């Protein structure tokens, strides 16, 4: 049985906006995601190269992160579109910080930025904890 934690389909959809680094954050590469964000995908060249790198980034993410009840793709969609409302945090069971995000606009967007860097690890930690309890 494979550990298919990330979706190539979502990776390619995020790649369309790849000059923002969205697909790199999704696959657990926050440093290069930040570089892509500030350089518009390395002036479009890195963005184009990533079209061919997504399958390997997907395999690496599948090996690196723990699968389980919390779906990475759902968490990332919630973060991307509803991050300031904390819905992604509520989804992974972090209700108090989710409500805090809701009341403070994602803790004034700094929390949302933090979650772009750490969401994969947060979901992996929750899934791992659920496996230990179950």
The coarse silhouette is: flat
- What is the percentage of strand-forming residues? under 5%
SSE ordering? HHHHHHHH
- Please report the number of helical segments: 8
* Rg for CA atoms: 15 Å
Largest sheet: none
Report, as a whole number of angstroms, the end-to-end distance: 19 Å
Helix percentage: over 70%
Overall pLDDT: 94
The strand count comes to 0
Derived from helix and strand composition plus strand pairing, the structural class reads: mainly alpha
Contiguous runs where pLDDT drops below 50 for at least 5 residues: none
Main features:
134 residues; mainly alpha; single chain; 0% strand
Please characterize this protein's 3D structure:
With 134 residues, the chain is mainly alpha-helical. It has 8 helices and no strands. Helix 1 runs antiparallel to helix 4. The protein is flat, with a radius of gyration of 15 Å. The protein starts with 7 loop residues before the first helix and ends with a helix.
Question: What's a concise summary of this model?
Answer:
The chain has 134 residues and is an all-alpha fold. It has helices at 8-16, 22-26, 30-43, 45-64, 72-82, 87-91, 95-108, 110-133.
